[in-house]
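We modelled the chain as a single entity of 206 amino acids. Its sequence is:
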Amino acid sequence: MTISRSIKLTCIAALCAGGVLLYLAAGILCYGDGGPVDSADAAIVLGAASWGDRPSPVFRERINYAVDLYKGGMVRKIIFTGARDSADEPPASTVAKRYAVGLGVPEADCIEEDRSRTTEENLLYAREIARRADISTFLVVSDPIHMKRAMTLALDLDMNARPAPTPTTRYRTFGNSARFLFREMYYSITYRIKKLIQGKTRDKSC
């Protein structure tokens, strides 16, 4: 193979890879644009960082939107997700629940899921709790850039869920938005590879 041909193939491969990444980025951004939100039994607030007994700004915006949905009659329960970051701090779900109660949501309508550390676990463990509470339909609440992957996970878990991206987000600057987008692209790609490997493994075992 000549050097010239090798360079051409490298350029073609780079262009193809770039096109795939642009397509993935566009899909993530467009999915989180928002739209009409239907009613459901409960809102699932996907976990984020908490600072001691306070939700981080990102987490706070997710909680605020879930509270708005509750007060607007769109859901009758809110499921807060997230484990504790350290032994001397409360779980993120507890922090979120206390914050929501402070905004006027009855404690009886707030449900805690305090084991999860990833988005997939947020949804998986919330689903387990929901089944015991006779909750079957969900609005998944998170930042717009996070929404496509979250909904992919929810649907793969056979959840009757619909997206509810926050109308406000703390990822406002270009730098923060770009970092969050690149992270979502990375996790989306690795999740698809994981599913592909799992599918091939099941095929071999059949």
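As a brief sanity check on the tokenised model: The chain has a mean pLDDT of 84. The longest strand covers residues 137-142.
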